[in-house]
Amino acid sequence: MFYRIMDILCHPSRIGLYIKDKIYVVILMFISFAVLFMGVLALKVYPQKYYSLESAENISYSISKSNIVPTIKYENKKIVGEKSFMVVMDDYSACFLPENYSTNNEITKKSLNMAFYEDHVDIYYGTSLAKTIKYEEVKVSDFDFINVYKGVTKDRINFEEFIFHFLDSCELHFKNTVYLQNSLVALGYYAISLFVSALFSFYVNSGIAMKVRWKLLVYDSLIYFFVMVFSVIFAYGFIEYIALVLPLIYSNITFRHIIRVRK
Q1: Same domain, 94 and 152
Q2: Gap between the Cα atoms of 214 and 225, Å rounded
Q3: In which band, very low, low, confident or very high, does the pLDDT at 211 lie, cut at 50, 70 and 90?
């Protein structure tokens, strides 16, 4: 097994030696490389802290620098006021007492969007509603947005704790979403790379039985997952392009070293 893995990674010209491998061996190799990539991706995504108290502090800072004085209060577990107010950051937005709220516009098309109504908040990931939380669950003292705007310490701290509660409560859900999206994108690109490699393999060598061809193609394509591991670790986008191209190069080398296989 060790030599098979080394040939898959380093010696594509020798992959033809494994044309008699059982299907379950090919599937096992695919699962092993895919799990390696998914595991490293999980270790990258889940330990990371996406939202912190600093994220809430950024919102209060934006309010203090706003040209609009918000006439909103949080008292008795409710947000009350005369007019809606919105804060838009690079990756997230917060809208207080919204009217006809929608995430289908350029202003609120962020990774995370929060719509604060009178007695609850709706949390969106992109345009999809992910969670609704009642203010009854929040143990934070009352505060006045005008005082947050003026920088009054007590109100600012209460406001930041209020915002952080919702950011922190959806942290795991956000990580799951990021992990799932990255996994699906990676698997989608893998499928494209495998399909293109299959097309070119017929051009390089058409005298190989279909069953054998696909076994070799799967082996050639596993380099994709191995290289993607380094893309995740080092966070370099160009490594993803290398991962996409290598299966095509490997399959070209493999099929040029095989004359003809009928079975």
Answers
A1: yes
A2: 17
A3: confident
